[in-house]
Amino acid sequence: MIRKAQSAMEYLITYGWAILVVAVVLGALFSLGVFNPLTFAPRANPGSCQVFRPYGAGTSTDINLAGVCNNELPKFVSILEASGQHVYYSINSLPLLSSGNVPWSATLWLYDPSIYATGPDCIAFSYGWSSWGDIPEYDGFALEADHAGTYYIKTSGGAIGVGPVFQSKWMFLAATYNGLYINGYDYSSNSMNYVSVLQSSTLVPALEAFIGWDGHHNDLCSASIANVQIYNASLSPSTVNSIYYEGIGGAPINLQNLVAWWPLNGDSQDYSGNGYQASASAGPFYTSGWSSAYTPP
């Protein structure tokens, strides 16, 4: 009996460290997403899906999706900060709004590891500049995820904040003339003054729109972003939910009102067929190593 116990102890001493090392390696690989089935899912190449407008940019007759548009995961997503260098995208003369109060919608996917950390807030998308704050600016709106974990829409009429936003997880953020959404849930229903704030804003045609910046303040994102869609209509809650449930690689749904679509899947081209290409301020930076951070709806 003593010999068997001694043999068992010798076995554990000899192979125990090896078993521990294997366990640690497997745990590290799991945390990196190596065993995540999404790691091996098909990836859509840049430009594999786009809107076809047979009568040219700005037309809506007989428009349709062309290419492989089965909501595969994108091969790349855009990183707005790499090696201490920030990048944002600017779009000149995006004709989203006419003078006055008109319907609009903006949807995008955001992954921000700096939420709840000290640092600048992340302006995920801005149209024009809003007259919000102490500096008079052009009227417009901005979608912001701040470092305190709140998702805001800011306009010249004020700011509405809802939450929560999530650290180091992909989030689907959407704002419309009638709603403010995180992962498909309309948080504006909890804010009685959401519509009144928008209706008090006098929106004007923007000189520029930005992805990852507000065009004025130094709030540059340290986040990743993908699949930015802009519409000249206020999407219904069911439509917003449909876009959300398509996932991060989903194509636009309301093609008749689609103004611009930047998948940011390896390039900054506008795949809406309207030709509003986004210009990167630096880089740009894209990564294919993002799947472990993605939790599908």
CATH fold-level assignment of the largest domain: Jelly Rolls
Sum up the overall morphology in one term.
globular
Average pLDDT figure:
78
Count of separate structural domains: 2
The SSE order reads HEEEEEEEEEEEEEEEEHEEHEEE
Beta-strand content bin? 25-35%
Summing up helix and strand content along with how strands pair, one would put the structural category as: alpha+beta
* Top-tier CATH class of the largest domain: Mainly Beta
Distance between the termini: 57 Å
Under the CATH scheme, which architecture of the largest domain would be assigned?
Sandwich
Largest sheet descriptor: 8 strands, antiparallel
- Structure annotation, total helices: 3
How many β-strand stretches? Answer: 21
Helix content: 10-25%
Description:
This protein is α+β, with helices and mostly antiparallel strands and 297 residues long. It folds into 2 domains: 1-31; 43-293, Jelly Rolls. Helices cover 15% and strands 29% of the residues. It has 3 helices and 21 strands. The strands form 5 sheets. Strands 5, 9, 14, 15, 16, 18, 19 and 21 form an 8-stranded antiparallel beta sheet that branches. It has a 7-stranded antiparallel beta sheet with strand order 13-12-11-10-17-8-20. A two-stranded parallel sheet has the order 1-4. Strand 6 and strand 7 form a beta hairpin. The longest helix is centred in the N-terminal third of the chain and has 30 residues, at 2-31. The chain is globular and about 85 Å long. The termini are far apart. Residues 29-38 and 134-138 have low confidence and may be disordered.
